[in-house]
UniProtKB/TrEMBL annotation:
Residues 14-108 form the CoA-binding domain. InterPro entries: CoA-bd, NAD(P)-bd_dom_sf. It comes from Klenkia taihuensis. It comes from the Bacteria. This is CoA-binding domain-containing protein. It holds the Pfam family CoA_binding_2.
Length: 160
């Protein structure tokens, strides 16, 4: 990834204006990153969250939609958990439904795709975790287990 992408302040503005999130590639498997992010979004944000996966009917007791076009409305932000080869199609769907932000999770980036998304008027965030970014800007990292307050590699002694 050579494109700088939105600054921290711009990412915070994106999250502050976001009301609805579509998680494309959401999984009902608790060991998958998308499931972990989904539980955080439902429990710790005010976002309305829609799951998109053509092979799953329900995740965390909520309906799953086979495509972005079948979601109950236009998502403000599309959070993508898909293989790199699938990203152009997801971008096409994101543009077609009229979403404002195309967000690629950790490990996903494509400069040409970002240029195409920005040319279509989207904010494009690549290689960032929506959960981590939300927690970072809304004071929840300590609750999510990323900031334990321990600045050492030594284990704490066992209490007896």
């Amino acid at each position: 990834m050579t494109r700088p992408g939105p600054t921290a302040g711009q990412r915070q503005e994106i999250l502050d204006r976001t009301r609805t999130v579509a998680v494309v590639g959401a999984s009902d498997n608790p060991s998958r990153a998308s499931y972990f992010v989904a539980t955080y979004l439902l429990a710790s944000t005010g976002f309305e969250v829609w799951f998109v996966n053509p092979r799953v009917d329900e995740i965390l007791g909520r309906p799953v939609y086979p495509s972005l076009a079948e979601c109950p409305g236009v998502p403000d932000l599309v959070d993508v958990f898909r293989r790199p080869a699938d990203l152009p199609g997801v971008l096409d769907e994101t543009i077609a439904v009229g979403a404002r932000t195309f967000w690629l999770q950790l490990g996903l980036s494509d400069d040409a795709l970002a240029e195409r998304g920005e040319a279509a008027g989207l904010d494009v965030v690549m290689d960032r975790c929506l959960k981590i970014e939300h927690a970072r800007f809304h004071g929840g990292l300590h609750l999510a287990g990323f900031d334990t307050g321990v600045i050492t590699s030594r284990r704490r002694p066992l209490r007896t």
